[in-house]
């Protein structure tokens, strides 16, 4: 009977079965190593997951964060080392792996990079996210996401460069190649980059936030989301419109919520030339003051704006608190104007033309 202390690989090496090539034995040894590494990696992951559950009850929240961060990189590292040693069992792969003497150190560097990057992300989520969500502004939320992304990218770039250096690859040519490749990529995706950096500018601008009623070009609506590349607004027709962030930088953006939520309405009413202007202005001011949506300060105004072809144009200036209901407020004012003018006998004239003929010339004579 074989010694139980012998490992599977030792057993395969000890067995000299006639007719089985040595290459088959090498492949079997590699498969055993891969299977053992996968089982060990899964066991490590489950063990770390259990420790993470227990660490949640700790006084220090960072304990649970650190254990959860370690679980996946550590399990992956076990599997990768198993694959590496399995490759060394196969003669064809052994020579290729020998060309990279620092491969174990490179794997450790990449695993450490994974830990640091994930640790930053988890720290942001556990400690930073609750703080920014407690603020009234969504500026902190957007800025936190950008900082998280930038920090993760920097950590991974540094980690990959260190891993390449550990493998004996010169970093200077790689950096030069990255510069040339970066320039080529920047030219190829300049629109995406423009929108991304536009998103940074929009994110840093506290005057544009979710829920604000804005006007950009031909679009008027409420800001639903401000992303890294585009900003989405919901129009008054209940349409979702995605605007590239660089468009927000190039075009004029009118914010109807700032500096205050109230907005001024301008309306024009035409009255007959024979109407009493003081009476008309008094009635118009009374109508505006009775509308619930309007405010007392600043006080509404009614002034003669122009002399039209068939009417005196009276301009009404009034402030109201709800920008999204501006059209409804204007409709309410105009309806009340029609009712009050009809009750007071004030005529709203329609365009007409007086045709006069010279004296002594019959009206039916042609040109």
- Oligomeric state of the chains? single chain
User: Which structural class is indicated by helix and strand composition?
Assistant: alpha+beta
Q: Strand-and-helix sequence, N→C?
A: HHHHHHHHEEEEHEEHEEH
Share of β-strand residues: 5-15%
Count of DSSP-assigned helices: 11
Q: Taking Cα atoms only, what radius of gyration do you get, to the nearest Å?
A: 38 Å
Q: Uncertain spans, ≥5 residues at pLDDT below 50? A: 1-6
Across the major sheet, the strand order is: 4-3-2-1-5
Principal-axes geometry comes out as elongated
**Total count of domains:** 3
Taking the sheet with the most strands, its summary is:
5 strands, antiparallel
The whole-number mean of residue pLDDT values reads 77
User: What is the β-strand count?
Assistant: 8
Name the helicity range. Answer: 55-70%
The N- and C-terminal alpha carbons lie at a distance of 132 Å
């Amino acid at each position: 009977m074989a010694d139980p202390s012998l490992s599977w690989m030792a057993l395969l090496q000890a067995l000299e079965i006639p007719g089985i090539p040595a290459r088959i034995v090498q492949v079997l040894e590699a498969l055993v190593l891969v299977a053992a590494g996968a089982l060990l990696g899964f066991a490590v992951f489950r063990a770390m997951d259990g420790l993470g559950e227990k660490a949640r009850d700790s006084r220090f929240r960072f304990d649970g964060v650190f254990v959860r961060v370690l679980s996946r990189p550590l399990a992956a590292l076990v599997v990768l080392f198993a694959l590496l040693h399995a490759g060394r069992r196969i003669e064809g792969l052994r020579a290729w792996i020998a060309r990279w003497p620092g491969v174990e150190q490179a794997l450790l560097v990449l695993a450490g990079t994974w830990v640091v990057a994930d640790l930053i992300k988890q720290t942001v989520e556990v400690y930073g996210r609750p703080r920014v969500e407690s603020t009234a502004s969504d500026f902190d939320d957007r800025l936190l996401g950008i900082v998280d992304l930038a920090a993760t990218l920097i950590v991974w770039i540094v980690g990959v460069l260190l891993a390449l250096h550990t493998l004996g690859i010169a970093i200077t040519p790689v950096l030069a190649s990255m510069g040339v490749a970066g320039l080529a990529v920047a030219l190829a995706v300049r629109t995406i980059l423009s929108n991304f950096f536009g998103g940074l500018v929009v994110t840093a601008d506290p005057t544009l936030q979710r829920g604000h009623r804005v006007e950009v070009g031909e679009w008027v609506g409420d800001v639903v989301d401000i992303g890294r590349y585009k900003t989405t607004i919901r129009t008054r027709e209940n349409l979702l419109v995605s605007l590239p962030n660089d468009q927000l930088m190039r075009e004029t953006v009118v914010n109807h919520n700032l500096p205050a939520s109230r907005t001024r309405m301008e309306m024009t009413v035409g009255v007959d030339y024979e109407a009493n202007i003081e009476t008309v202005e008094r009635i118009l001011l009374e109508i505006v003051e009775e509308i619930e949506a309007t405010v007392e300060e600043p006080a509404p105004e009614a002034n003669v704006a122009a002399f039209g072809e068939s009417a005196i144009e009276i301009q009404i200036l009034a402030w109201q608190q709800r920008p999204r209901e501006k059209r409804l407020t204007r409709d309410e004012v105009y309806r009340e104007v029609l009712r009050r003018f009809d009750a007071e006998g004030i005529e709203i004239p329609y365009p007409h033309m007086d045709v006069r003929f010279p004296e002594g010339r019959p009206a039916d004579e042609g040109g």
